[in-house]
Amino acid sequence: MTELLQYVITGVTVGSIYGLIALGFVLVYNSSHVINFAQGDLQMVGGMIAVAVLTAGLPLPVAVVVGTLGGAVAGFLLYKAAIEPAGDAGPLPLVVITLGAALVLRGVVELIWGRGYYSLPAFSGDEAIQFLGVTIVPQSLWVLGLTAAVVVVLTYFFNSTKTGKAILATSIDPDAATLMGINTRRMKLLCFGLGGFLGAVAGVAIAPIAFTYSMVGLMLGLKGFVAAVLGGLGNFKGAVIGGLILGVTETMMSGYGASDYKDAIAFLLILVILIFMPRGLLGASGVERV
Amino acid sequence: MTNMNEAVAPAQSAPIATPPALKLKADSLRRLGPVVALGLAIALVPLIAGSAYHMHMAVMIGIHAVIAISLNLLVGYAGQISLGHAGFMAIGAYGTAILSARYGWPPLLGLGVSSIAAGLLAFAVGRPILRLKGYYLAMATLGLGMIIYLVISNEVWLTGGPDGMSLSVLTVFGIELDSAGKWYWIVGAILLLTYWMARNLVDAPIGRALRALEGPDALAASAGIDISWNKVRIFAVSAALTALMGGVGALYSGFITPKSADFMQSIELILMVILGGMGSVFGAVVGAGIVTMLPQVLTSLEHYESLVYGVILILVMVFMPKGLVPTTAHLIRKFRR
User: Fold this and answer.
1) Which of A32, B24, B131, B266 registers the highest number of CB atoms within 10 A of its CB?
2) For chain B, what is the domain count?
3) Does the residue B327 lie in any domain?
4) Closest Cα of chain B to A42: distance in Å?
């Protein structure tokens, strides 16, 4: 029982990270119908910048803030430099552009920091907390807290602010939104920036638990994408829940034996979901059968 | 140049009433011309290739070109993308290697069986998923490809794991196929055959049906086209052909590792199609050439490799979203007017 609880807690921590990355995918997908394959690398950029700022001798809180803002800036740049100039190129060329952007981000990071492995110190010490016989690292609580805070703020943002509603309108019908006087380009820009910010939050929060390095974004990005699909790509709540389910399933599987195939869980889940419940777990609208 | 014919001819022949017999002749010429041109190009390469390394690159380009053409049928004519074609390549490569090295099958039988197996797997996965509208095949193939990659990396007893496994030199009719020079002609023949079939397919009823799939599905359906069945068929054929070339590549190089099955390999295959031009058979060949040679050219840049690769992708997509070949053909047409 203790073991099970331990796995759940570890799983939820990892799952929160997947959920944050998945949220970034959903934001960009809703606003521009682009699957942003650079999402995982935006996460990596956030972690790397935070490490760099800390190594430069600045205090940890500054490093954390600069790292997350760095992710947002990278997201803005991606939109301004590559997505916007492509105009109405259609979804496939845009997807290729994000793949190109992922390579550029990886390339720039390798140029500056090389291919080494880096990590941040834990935000509030390494002394594990014992609770009902379960060991919890304080950083886990930070990850959970940050994810919860992001979800609360995003919910408020989309339900109660003008900009948030404008983004929703853009994602539902860009043409109608334009007619209502919404600057849809600006909303898309904002979504890419917000996506980069969410990715970077994930990157900075996980950096004390797992290493960050130039290639880390590839697998994490794919897992975040799987989480988004699990939740029915396009659904904010679904993205977080998808991330949690993926994280817990993965930890359980590796905990109870099949650790070689830990990474396969995500991809097996995606096949099962698509074949048996294509609307995702929460049933996003928009899946049509032909 | 070749693609220009593909795009221009129908527009020009439509308004002028050409006698049916003449039109038929012009049609078959139009179809045969590029095939003959590619045949000549294939025949000429060994004359200008300066070294064994050049021949090696030519063989690799040929293998990739066949895969790109098969993938382009799916992307260009069914409007679906696959992010797991490296997985099918790996089924061909590892299937051939395992069946011949571990179970003593004749390599060519192993190659045939693994290609068919890949086709059947694609059929089984594609059947339920291609009934859905949207890019769900991309996600499913992403999952499938990653699972194949992980199985190959983990099942060390069968596949050798990350260390890879080696294949013995293939002997056909008493000839030892032990050099790029010999394989070149085999791969060249397969490429020419695939190119010819793909160009014919474009104009055959199934090709027209497939092209209709690009547009609104309701329109295709109202013209009596079984949409999902056609998509599944082309996906299965594409997977089988890709596995075949994966196996050919394995027999040629004599050594395979899981790296050839990873996600980036799938991405490179998709890049060949999109860079060259979606829906253009010739574009697939050009794309295969560029993507195969680019890393070789970029190795001299060492630390900048991934950066430069990324920048090139972005620039091409921003300025030529339709791909190199269709955009160039369009420019030439504009210039001539």
Assistant:
1) B266
2) 1
3) yes
4) 15
Residue A285 located in a structural domain:
no
For the entire predicted model, the pTM comes to 0.83
| Contacting A residues, span 84-113, partner chain B, CB-CB under 8 Å | 85-86, 89-97, 99-108, 110-111
For A9, the token pair is 């807690």
Contacts of A287 in chain B (CB under 8 A): 132-134, 136
> What is Dmax (Cα atoms) for chain B?
66
Q: Which CATH number goes with the domain that contains A142? A: 1.10.3470
Its domain, for residue A144, covers: 2-276
Chain A interface mutation, best of B306, B312, B319, B320, highest count of A Cβ atoms under 10 Å: B306
* ipTM of model: 0.85
d(CA B289, CA B49): 15
Per-residue pLDDT of A196-229, as tens digits, reads 999 999 999 999 988 888 888 888 888 998 899 8
A45/B contact by beta carbon, under 8 A? no
DSSP states along B83-117 = S-HHHHHHHHHHHHHIIIIIT---HHHHHHHHHHH
Residue B328 to residue B330: CA distance in whole angstroms: 5
Per-residue pLDDT averaged across B155-163, rounded? 85
A288–chain B Cβ distance below 8 A for any pair? yes
CB B61 within 8 A of CB B241: no
Closest partner residue to A274 (CB to CB) among B129, B278, B306 is B129
Q: Do B278 and A94 touch (CB under 8 A)?
A: no
Q: Provide the total of helices (H) and of strands (E) in chain B, helices listed first.
A: 15, 4
